[in-house]
Every structure is written in structure tokens, then in C-alpha cells.
């Protein structure tokens, strides 16, 4: 992990903690966001605001309108694959899955 990456995670975790999350929760949420930034933001809007760069890619803040976000755990473990040619296969380790789910739950627009 580069120093710049750590600094960005620390800044995000600090901001999340200021909004009421515990320091540990904030760190997990920040890690989830960093993973999605790295792997998904090319096509999906990954924050509470903004449009997805790919018009057919859903904004992650609206995922709970379709199904429970926690239902993604199994898909992330087994590998998310779609028929869409632009989306690469995506798999994650259990600790990464927990971070991703925590972040996604923190941004839902419900």
C-alpha cells in the first residue's frame, strides 16, 4: 500500500468517523470505498452523488432498490459475472467483501 493510498484512506476514515461511525467502522468503510474506486468507478457511480460514467451501469447508492445489499456477499465471493461485455469478472476475499458491503450499506439512498 503506497503512502498516498494510506493517506487517502486515513482522510476518508477521519471524515466518516466525524459523521458518527466508530474508528474501526470508518476504516472498514474507507477500505470498501477504495476497493470500489479501484475496481468499479470506471463504469459505476460509487458515491452518494453523481452519475455513472457508463450509462447502463447502476449507481451503487441505488443498489438496495433492487435487492438487499448484503445479498451481494455470495456473488462477490463466487465472482460477479454479467453478460455485459464491458464488465470484467470480479471476485473478492472475505475481508474485502465485508468492507465493500459496509461501504455500500453506508451510501444507500433509502
From TrEMBL:
The keyword Iron applies. Residues 1-23 form the signal peptide. InterPro entries: Cyt_c-like_dom, Cyt_c-like_dom_sf. GO terms for molecular function: electron transfer activity; heme binding; metal ion binding. Keywords: Heme, Iron, Metal-binding, Signal. Coiled coil: none annotated. Residues 27-108 form the Cytochrome c domain. Pfam families: Cytochrom_C. It comes from the Bacteria. The keyword Metal-binding applies. Gene3D superfamilies: Cytochrome c-like domain. This is Mono/diheme cytochrome c family protein. It comes from Aurantimonas endophytica.
